[in-house]
Design a protein that fits this description.
about 290 residues, alpha/beta, 6-stranded mixed sheet, 4-stranded parallel sheet, 11 helices, about 25% strand
């Protein structure tokens, strides 16, 4: 059986403790905030970022470049291990493209090693959940090429459904127009969005009020979730833990979900989606 490491990037929003427990390697994306560049990480600094965003401050983000990828992939190859690299969605970032470039360059230096790069077409804890599943499959003994194929197939079943509390962040990101954002804010309209098969964020429907939008996420899991495949779901939040806990209670009570992991939306994604973002990730018939 081949020995290999699973490598990902901080777009997965997995906390450091879980990254250590899973035994994976990851490279950070970066956020520029208050004049300083910091690594994208789900740690105590995230609350400071969200406080700044609520106060009207701005943050800019940058992808992981080929050199950064090589710094985390090369040591794995030098250990005599192969590498499975699972990247942030190419529909949202150039991070994935940079991983492919890095892998091609490293393959020439390490011709005896195998490097497989898979664009997860996922983001935040959707990417994190896919990485988590991949780690379970690796522990069960799945070979590198088989696992790469499994991820390529199942990424289209990894459902991302989310809502935001402040439409102005979607306006700044070009997701909705200014008039829609202003009118929606006045009428307390909350969008319900998902990530499509190309890894893009798509506005699907609207709900009147925050609670209705959260209930809509749980309803989508009930409609799309694969029976028997969702003992574990992931939820991420943009500094709104009470809403995340309410959503977790809903899916446990109504859908019988046994395990719900709740984590922060990381700095890179949170800079674009804003405070109050809430997302639910699960395996479905389709996205």
């Amino acid at each position: 059986m081949s020995q290999y490491k699973i490598i990902t990037d901080s777009g997965c929003d997995l906390p450091k403790e879980m990254i250590r427990e899973l035994g994976i390697v990851h490279t950070p994306l970066y956020v520029r905030f208050r004049g300083e560049e910091m690594e994208d990480a789900v740690d105590d600094s995230i609350r400071t970022l969200y406080a700044g965003l609520r106060a009207g401050e701005n943050a800019t983000t940058s992808a992981a470049n080929p050199e950064q990828w090589k710094k985390v992939i090369a040591p794995v190859l030098e250990e005599g291990l192969d590498a499975l690299v699972l990247t942030f969605s190419s529909g949202l970032s150039t991070t994935s493209q940079c991983a492919f470039i890095a892998a091609e360059e490293l393959q020439g230096q390490f011709p005896q090693r195998r490097i497989r790069v898979v664009d997860t077409l996922s983001a935040s804890l959707g990417q994190g959940l896919l990485v988590w599943y991949a780690c379970q499959k690796q522990q069960e003994g799945m070979e590198l090429d088989d696992l790469a194929h499994w991820v390529e197939e199942n990424r289209f079943h990894l459902c991302h459904w989310f809502t935001v509390d402040d439409l102005m962040y979607l306006k700044r990101g070009g997701r909705i127009g200014a008039a829609t954002a202003v009118m929606g804010t006045m009428l307390n309209i909350k969008p319900v969005l998902h990530m499509d098969d190309a890894g893009h964020l798509i506005n699907v429907s609207k709900a009147r009020g925050r609670k209705a939008s959260i209930d809509a996420l749980a309803a989508k899991a009930g409609q799309l979730g694969l029976p028997g495949k969702n003992e574990t779901m992931f939820i991420c939040h943009g500094d709104c833990i009470e809403d995340a806990e309410y959503l977790a209670a809903q899916v446990k009570e109504k859908l019988g979900v046994k395990n719900v992991f709740i984590g922060y939306t990381g700095a890179v994604i949170g800079s674009h989606s804003g405070p109050g973002t809430l997302a639910l990730f699960f395996m479905g018939e389709h996205r």
